[in-house]
Design a protein that fits this description.
The structure is a homotrimer.
Chain A: E1 2-10, E2 17-20, H1 22-32, E3 37-43, E4 48-53, H2 57-70, H3 88-97, E5 100-106, E6 109-110, E7 117-122, E8 129-137
Antiparallel strand pairs in A: 1-8, 2-7, 3-5, 3-8, 4-7, 5-6
Chain lengths: 138, 138, 138
């Protein structure tokens, strides 16, 4: 069994942002030399997400509006977590979007349907944060 | 290490439907010959879901009503994604329900609690769509 | 390839409770002797959750309030599932929080960011329920 590990780093200019990381993960799969296995990609922070969906800007705006309705950022005082912080909404938004994605690797490639793209979802940005890529297989 | 891969295909008569795929996945586990390992089952489409819950028709109706409250199908115009499409709600519903399930295989079987059943959740059906089963182990 | 399996049991005094199980899972990783691999931790019941977030009591209260807004326990009669049962809300709350977490193991340890902690989320307690830990790797 082989294993591979890499960190991907981000520092977004805005509090919230969705970034397509599919090419980065594909590069990891190639570097790993693993032909058959599983690839785990997870946020290493609890106010960010890794998820799979469509790379379509209208949908990304819909997700922003929808998450703000399900778990609004403001008023900050509505959350008990926000006594010294202001990011309780980011913890909840990441819960909706998910921490991680596990993907199959087949013939040395991400085994994806036609529209699947991997995103880093930042919900409390403007600082350095990272994603873990771990691959095991043969 | 052994690996196994199979696609399961669906074509639902209705836009939304929940289908119990536990027997299909169990058959894959048997076919794989893998005794100890991990089994990943994921939707290969971004408007469908694979999740684990109860096979109880009342609950399935509750899920339908609940998802329609969290991410209503109509009016289509409420979503920016719906300029050429009408399925933005399906992208959001699948986000709530999740893309994938990772399960343990022990002694050649799905290592499940008493009520766990695997479902394919279709949220934009009436067309051919598929699920990936990938198993690794020994 | 090595594999490891353990069940963790819980019996909460209240209907809903979040329990930090990170030390229990770390002990499993040590016991397994696996240095590089993947660790799956999942609820074996469909009214409970395993998820990763912050161990901060204010946030845990926010999660309780938020889940009650998204999927209220009462009135019980609002759910079709509740003809002989009263736990439909627990099925929905667990859907939001997730069934399972897959984590990387690197150098014999959970490969975590600084604030990641694993929780058992009980949404229909006051009875014996369990979590599965499965680890594969080398």
């Amino acid at each position: 069994m082989k294993s591979y590990r890499k960190e991907l780093w981000f520092n977004t200019a805005t509090r919230r942002l969705l970034i397509n990381i599919t090419p980065d993960v594909q590069r990891c799969v190639s570097e790993s030399g693993i032909k058959e296995g599983l690839c785990l990609v997870n946020a290493m922070h609890i106010t960010a997400s890794v998820f799979i969906n469509d790379d379509e800007s209208g949908l990304h705006q819909d997700i922003e509006v929808w998450l703000e309705k399900l778990a609004p950022e403001k008023p900050y005082s509505q959350y008990r977590h926000n006594s010294y912080e202001d990011n309780a909404d980011a913890h909840l938004k990441r819960t909706v979007m998910g921490r991680e994605v596990t993907m199959a690797i087949t013939n040395g490639k991400l085994d994806f349907g036609p529209w699947e793209q991997i995103f880093y979802g930042e919900f409390d940005g403007k600082r350095k944060k990272r994603v873990l890529v771990k691959i095991i297989g043969e």
